[in-house]
Design a protein that fits this description.
Keywords: Carbohydrate metabolism, Glycosidase, Hydrolase, Polysaccharide degradation, Signal, Xylan degradation. This protein has about 350 residues and is α/β, with parallel strands linked by helices. Helix content is about 35%, strand content about 15%. It has eleven helices and ten strands. Helix 8 links the parallel strand 6 (about 180-185) and strand 7 (about 215-220). The structure holds (3S,4R)-3-hydroxy-2-oxopiperidin-4-yl beta-D-xylopyranoside.
């Protein structure tokens, strides 16, 4: 039958997945497996490097050093197989994925300008290196603290305000990659414990418009499923009206939408495989039907295409210790009900 990317293409969309090269520590190594690469090539029109464009890999050599080799290896594979490549991500607060030198760096007597220089240098160097080979960037990832709704702080924003840092990243990206689509990417928690997240992201998006910051799209990560697996966006019928109000507000401001990191946490679903897979598929189907009802939705990108290599297994395990099954292909690379659910939704 037709690939998921061909099906997505029927409505002018693209389908894809993340892939990991395993660089910089205990990171996903799906790229090393030829079976994984074959499924990517067969199903996908777009590919996201799971970690290789983060500061933790690209900037691990220290200030002034850029190691493009890990990401370039993935990009060569994408290009050889006719896949677009997404730039994930130019600015992310996460301390674990920011090299230590950033905090220890000598910011000198004008620390704000030095922080700004580092951000601008990073964005400009990456965008210039790739030129038209990357036409969509998650410029800023997860800028908002979901509990407080405030901007998150990072070593770079000790000196420069977080708003200035975020705005600067987008402005520098527009200048260095004028043809690229610029995305603000966030997981959008959908749990009662984070009531500030949604309004704060809407304020952020409004602020971009008021200040003329060049942002084209909102990337919805789409780590859906039962709460607690990741800081996820649980989606159920009872949430749909509130979720639509959020999407309506985002699109009313003129932003396009992408699903950038879809997976379905089955952390708390029943153990029997058939039942678990069926619930995962139903959950994703309801979510995708809602998302696909927005003509503004472009890409549908998974955060991993087989259960064999999946970041969720590195987070809190299921209480029964069974491996999680959050993707459309199982650990033997056989299509699961989730694959059929995505195909049907498309
Ligand atoms: C994750 C990777 O999948 C892991 O391999 C890594 O250890 C941590 O980062 N939201 C994001 C992604 O924007 O960059 C994260 O990727 C998953 C959550």
């Amino acid at each position: 039958g037709p690939s998921l990317d061909v099906l997505a293409g029927l409505s002018g969309r693209r389908f894809g997945s993340a892939i990991g090269g395993g660089h910089g520590g205990p990171l996903t190594r799906s790229f090393d497996d030829p079976a994984y690469r074959a499924i990517m090539a067969a199903e996908c029109g777009v590919m996201t490097p799971e970690n290789e464009l983060k500061w933790s890999v690209l900037r691990r050599g220290g200030a002034g050093s850029f190691d493009f080799a890990p990401a370039d290896r993935l990009l060569a594979f994408a290009e050889a197989n006719g896949m677009a490549f997404r730039g994930h991500t130019l600015l992310w607060h996460h301390p674990q994925y920011t090299p230590e030198w950033v905090a220890k760096h000598d910011y000198g007597s004008k620390p704000a300008s030095e922080a700004a220089r580092l951000i601008e240098e990073h964005v400009t160097t990456v965008c210039s290196h790739y030129g038209r080979r990357i036409l969509s960037y998650d410029v800023v990832n997860e800028a908002i603290d979901p509990e407080t709704g405030d901007y998150r702080t990072t070593p770079l924003t000790q000196h420069l305000s977080p708003q200035e840092a975020v705005d600067l990243a987008f402005r520098a990206a527009r200048a260095a990659a004028p043809e690229a689509e610029l995305v603000y990417n966030d997981f959008m928690s959908w749990e009662p414990g984070s009531p500030r997240h949604v309004p704060a992201v809407l304020e952020l998006l409004e602020g971009f418009r008021k200040r003329g910051v060049p942002v084209d799209a909102m990337g919805i990560q789409g780590h859906i499923g039962d709460p607690g697996g990741a800081k996820s966006a649980p989606f159920a019928a009872r949430d749909e009206r509130a979720w639509r109000r959020f999407l309506d507000a985002v699109t009313a401001m003129g932003y396009k939408l992408h699903i950038t990191e879809l997976d379905v946490s089955d952390k708390k679903l029943p153990a029997p495989t058939a039942e678990r897979d069926a619930q995962v598929a139903d959950y994703a189907r309801a979510y995708l039907d809602c998302m696909l009802s927005y003509p503004q939705l472009g890409d549908i990108v998974l955060w991993g295409i087989t259960d064999q290599y999946n970041w969720l297994n590195g987070l809190t395990p299921r209480s029964d210790g069974l491996p999680k099954r959050p993707t459309p292909y199982d650990d033997q690379f056989r299509a699961k009900p989730l694959r059929a659910a995505i195909a049907d939704a498309l």
